What we know:
The protein is mostly helical. The chain has five helices and no strands.
Amino acid sequence: MQATRTDTVRARISPELKNSVEGIFSSLGMNSSQAIVLFFKQVELHNGLPFDVTLPPKKIPNMATMSDEEVDAALQAGIDEIDAGKCVPLNRAYAGFRRRHAKWATMASK
């Protein structure tokens, strides 16, 4: 049986980011190499990035300071995103939130 050939990818990443992300990978049962292969496979399958790359909104909406028209426009924008399929199922969003904030939950329980 012939060995599978591999190539090397190198990237410079801050130690804090690397440690934080490796902890997440570990909780998912994978290491950095497996996660990178997964990302590359998804790029290949999508023929591009497997997620939208956008800047966060300049101003986070605050309903307490918005006019009725602004609230209506913000709600309609959300409905339009749902209709366009630009949403994540609640169970997946919740699981992602729990993963990202697990360290805060353990700190709060101490």
